[in-house]
């Protein structure tokens, strides 16, 4: 039984088209579509196939489980995985032909042990922290990891095929931090090449840098959010201006419509009160489905041809709209929470602004129990 009164409609052709568009921004680089977080909530395997159809030649999966799931689905494209802890199943990763990011000496040792155990030469991308202050080794430590890695490479245990890093502020136009990170990265690449690494791919650019910092495109760009048609820099380069279209449309059927008097408090805590005789519509999605509670009295929803702001608090499984009398809206009608905007519906970006977050979080947090319905080739 898979009945649910809501669904996320994902347009796979749009994902493919977004990748094709991103390739135009980085014409000399390969595109690694980042599909972490269940492809930002769009569905790992269908979204990955669509991205490959659109021209991506690599897939980036943060979690090893996601990377392995791509292989189990029969996807043969190069895959990079980068987030794990000691004791991770590196032998499975190597047997599946998945490239591994190495951010530290302990990780290099574990990957090398798995390579020896399986007899498979591990393909590693050495991750340098050029200033994000998150993943990868800071430059000095990184050079030590590099030295160990090239020694293991000369023993045939592994191949250093990539050097990579991640930017902190590529979404801020002309931020000097991008140039600083670029400088450290260029030095890391040079060190690796001098040390004898046979680099296939040097990569630094996320969506924001793919769209706006061509100097850092290198051999491979790693867009995530833009693949799904949302902008990482909505104030300076909205998605429509970049030629990208949101691929996901979140819809729910109205559970109940009823007339309500003036002065009626709505939902827990009565943080909203009707100001006239009106009608209330219950929408059967709530924070258990990933609808942010912060969207209460804030986020817009399209219903009956009009946008309504959520009335009162978002509950676990539902929220309420104040739709006025005479709208003609009935139980079963479809409310659109967000989509491409083409039919007057709000976008995930509108929801992000209403809830004080970013579009990434809006789409990624959508509960897995909300059915994904696919449109387009491969659906
Ligand atoms: C998430 C992520 C990306 C993609 O970032 P977007 O801002 O979604 O384009 C690229 N590289 C790494 C390492 C990431 O973690």
What this model shows, in words?
The protein has 379 residues and is of the alpha/beta class. The chain folds into 2 domains: 12-229, TIM Barrel, CATH 3.20.20; 248-375, Beta Barrel (Lyase, Ornithine Decarboxylase, Chain A, domain 1). Helices cover 31% and strands 25% of the residues. It has 12 helices and 20 strands. It has helices at residues 12-25, 36-40, 44-53, 64-72, 90-95, 105-118, 139-154, 176-195, 207-212, 239-242, 348-355, 359-364, and strands at residues 6-11, 30-34, 58-63, 79-83, 99-102, 122-129, 137-138, 158-164, 201-205, 220-221, 248-253, 256-260, 265-266, 272-273, 278-283, 300-303, 306-311, 319-322, 334-338, 372-375. An 8-stranded parallel beta barrel has the order 2-3-4-5-6-8-9-10, surrounded by 6 helices. Strands 12-15-18-17-16 form a 5-stranded antiparallel beta sheet. Strands 19-11-1-20 form a 4-stranded mixed beta sheet. Strand 13 and strand 14 (272-273) form a beta hairpin. It is elongated. The two termini are 21 Å apart. Pyridoxal-5'-phosphate is lined by residues 34, 36, 166, 206-207, 222-226, 232.
């Amino acid at each position: 039984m898979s009945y649910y009164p809501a669904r996320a409609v994902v347009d796979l052709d749009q994902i493919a088209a977004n990748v094709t568009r991103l390739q135009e921004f980085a014409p000399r680089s390969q595109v690694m579509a980042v599909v972490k977080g269940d492809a930002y909530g769009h569905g790992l395997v269908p979204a990955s196939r669509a991205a490959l159809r659109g021209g991506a030649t690599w897939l980036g999966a943060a979690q090893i489980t996601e990377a392995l799931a791509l292989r189990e689905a029969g996807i043969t494209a190069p895959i990079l995985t980068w987030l794990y802890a000691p004791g991770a199943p590196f032998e499975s990763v190597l047997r599946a032909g998945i490239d591994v990011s190495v951010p530290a000496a302990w990780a290099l040792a574990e990957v090398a042990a798995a390579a020896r155990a399986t007899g498979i030469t591990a393909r590693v991308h050495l991750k340098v922290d050029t200033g994000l202050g998150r993943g990868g080794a800071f430059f000095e430590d990184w050079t030590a990891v590099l030295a160990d890695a090239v020694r293991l490479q000369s023993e045939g245990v592994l191949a250093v095929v990539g050097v990579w890093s991640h930017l902190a502020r590529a979404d801020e136009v002309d931020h000097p931090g991008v140039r600083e990170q670029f400088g450290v990265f260029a030095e890391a690449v040079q060190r690796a090449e001098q040390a004898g690494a046979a680099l296939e791919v040097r990569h630094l650019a996320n969506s924001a840098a793919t769209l706006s910092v061509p100097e850092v495109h290198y051999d491979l760009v790693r867009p995530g959010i833009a693949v799904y048609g949302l902008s990482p820099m909505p104030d300076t380069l909205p998605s429509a201006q970049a030629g990208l279209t949101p691929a996901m449309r979140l819809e729910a059927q109205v559970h109940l419509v009823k007339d309500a008097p003036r002065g009626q408090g709505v939902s827990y805590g009565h943080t909203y009160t009707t100001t006239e005789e009106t009608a209330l519509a219950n929408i059967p999605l709530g924070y258990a489905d990933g609808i942010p509670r912060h969207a209460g009295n804030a986020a817009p929803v399209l219903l009956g041809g009009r946008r309504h702001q959520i009335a009162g608090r978002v509950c676990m499984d539902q929220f309420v709209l104040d739709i006025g009398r005479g709208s003609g809206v009935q139980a079963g009608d479809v409310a659109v929470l967000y989509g491409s905007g083409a039919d007057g519906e709000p976008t995930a970006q509108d929801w992000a602004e209403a809830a004080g977050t970013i579009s990434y979080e809006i789409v990624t947090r959508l509960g897995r129990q909300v059915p994904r319905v696919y449109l387009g080739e491969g659906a």
